[in-house]
Write a structure and sequence with these properties.
Elements: E1 2-6, H1 11-22, E2 26-33, H2 40-51, E3 56-61, H3 94-109, E4 113-115, H4 131-144, H5 146-149, E5 155-157, H6 165-174, H7 197-209
Parallel strand pairs: 1-2, 1-4, 2-3, 4-5
Length: 220
């Protein structure tokens, strides 16, 4: 069995890929350099892919910075506190673009599944992380791909969608996922900032799991 795994370099996608590996899939990883502020995460995605012994790892260049509209792709300050509603770190249509590439790669490789580490519990409020959105994209796979028309569309798998962050961490530890190679910070640098919303969710998750976070932070 083959699976396309979307690897961002973060915790959730790392654990989702580790779950796919535990289910016997051969992993074909996709990472996207979309002009994001945090280029550090791409290097971490490469380390995660290597540690998971993926069959191949493609880093796809997409220029979402030319469109902007997000604190991750434009000159908008990254907030240090949680925001009401959809935050400025939401990248318009990002998961739709990523899953479109994953569907194409699944058709080319013959992969039966696509694993994406979206979560609808401890997350930042992004609309493209919700179960209803994933259901809609599964319908796209059924209607808009050759394999879908032939009655065998790739299944979009979201194994951590109902997990809180501490549960994702606990599952990752259980599966010996390479959490030490992951990166969650919205900012770039040798150390995570420890202050942005993504760092805060990560640190709270490790605290609830009763486990020390293996990465270094600039702000202790």
């Amino acid at each position: 069995m083959k699976a396309i795994c979307l690897l961002s370099g973060g915790l959730d996608s790392c654990v989702a890929a580790a779950i796919a590996r535990s289910q016997g899939y051969t992993l074909h990883a996709l990472t996207f350099d979309y002009g994001q502020r945090g280029q550090t995460e791409i290097g971490h995605a490469r380390r995660v892919a290597e540690a998971l012994d993926v069959a191949d790892h493609k880093v796809i260049d997409i220029d979402l910075r030319s469109l902007g509209g997000s604190a991750l792709t434009a000159d908008i300050e990254v907030p240090e506190a949680a925001q009401e509603g959809i935050p400025v770190t939401y990248v318009p249509a990002r998961n739709t673009i990523f899953l479109s590439y994953a569907l194409a790669h699944a058709e080319v490789t013959g992969a039966s599944s696509i694993f994406i580490g979206v979560t609808a519990v401890d997350y930042s409020g992004y609309p493209d992380c919700r179960p209803g959105y994933i259901m809609a994209m599964q319908r796209v796979a059924e209607l808009g791909t050759k394999r879908g028309v032939e009655g065998n569309p790739p299944a979009i798998e979201t194994p951590v969608i109902d997990m809180a962050k501490h549960e994702i961490i606990e599952r990752g530890i259980e599966l010996q996922a390479p959490l030490e190679h992951t990166w969650s910070c919205y900012r770039d640098g040798d150390r995570a900032c420890g202050r942005c919303d993504s760092c805060r969710l990560r640190l709270e998750g490790f605290a609830r799991a009763g486990v020390e976070d293996p990465i270094a932070y600039a702000d202790n």
